[in-house]
Amino acid sequence: MSSAAAAAGPARQFNLATESELRVEVGQESPLRVRLVSGTAEIFGTELPPENWISIPPRHKFAIFTWHGATVELEGTTEVEYVADETPMVSYVNVHAILDARRSRAKASQSAELDSSQGPRVIVVGPTDSGKSSLCRMLLSWACKQGWKPTFVDLDIGQGSITMPGCIAATPIELPIDAVEGIPLEIPIVYFYGHTTPSVSAELYKVLVKELAQTLERQFTGNAESRAAGMVINTMGWVEGLGYELLLHAIDTLNANVVLVLGQVLAYGGNPLISAWHR
């Protein structure tokens, strides 16, 4: 792993080896331009277009990963940029393969029982800055590449990946998530909580999660394709005390059958520990 450092000025070229990634934090004032010169690479599971510059907004953190090797260029100011040879991507793609098999079994099920036709309902939990949102985006994008249309559920009222902070929301994902535009907003289901922490009214938060779960259940009952594709659920980074209680409530209310637990990650160094539970 090369050392992290800020950089600016003309285009800088990085030759990435197999299964390595370039980790970047964009500067505070201006966007960063990124170009794939050769090979193949992706940002959070979405492939970069070859030979085209894309613009990443200020203050964004992202990683450009390659499975088979690539050359990429950066142009603009960054707070941090470095190449990491040790990444969790192999573990992540193995999780994706298991989820894909469960979706296929659910789709092929001829049983009238809803449980057997239900695809994976994956909830990703872990402390702040453990990579939950990034893993959700990768799992969703990889599923879309396989032809599935999973539902993304965002329970993190502090950030708001689908809409603004202070809301819980869900939306179907039909295409790999754009590295710049983020989650599509065509037909989201949104419940307004009004605060960025559930401690203001934990009971209201639980009520909204229950309402969202009931709405999704009605949709899945009438749509076998969406039911087989399942859902990926992002959660808050509060994992102790009341936060832990709310995580258990979400797992139960949304009938999550796969729980992915990410460990703490040091900023710009180390990889998340991942463990899984399923039923």
From TrEMBL:
Question: Does the keyword Kinase feature in the UniProt annotation?
Answer: no
Signal peptide (UniProt feature, chain positions): none
- What's the main place this protein lives? nucleus
Where, subcellularly, is it found?
Nucleus
Q: Name one GO cellular component term.
A: nucleus
Tell me the organism: Iris pallida
What does the record give under GO molecular function?
Answer: ATP binding; polynucleotide 5'-hydroxyl-kinase activity
Q: Which PANTHER family match?
A: CLEAVAGE/POLYADENYLATION FACTOR IA SUBUNIT CLP1P, POLYRIBONUCLEOTIDE 5'-HYDROXYL-KINASE CLP1
Organism placement in taxonomy = Eukaryota, Viridiplantae, Streptophyta, Embryophyta, Tracheophyta
The Clp1 P-loop domain extends over 126-264
Determine the domain of life of the protein's source.
Answer: Eukaryota
Which example biological process does GO assign this protein? mRNA processing
Q: Which residues form the Clp1 N-terminal domain?
A: 16-106
Does the UniProt entry include the keyword Nucleotide-binding?
A: yes
Question: Sorted alphabetically, which keywords does the UniProt record give?
Answer: ATP-binding, mRNA processing, Nucleotide-binding, Nucleus
Q: What is this protein called?
A: Protein CLP1-like protein
**Matching InterPro entries, A to Z?**
Clp1/Grc3, Clp1_N, Clp1_N_sf, CLP1_P, P-loop_NTPase
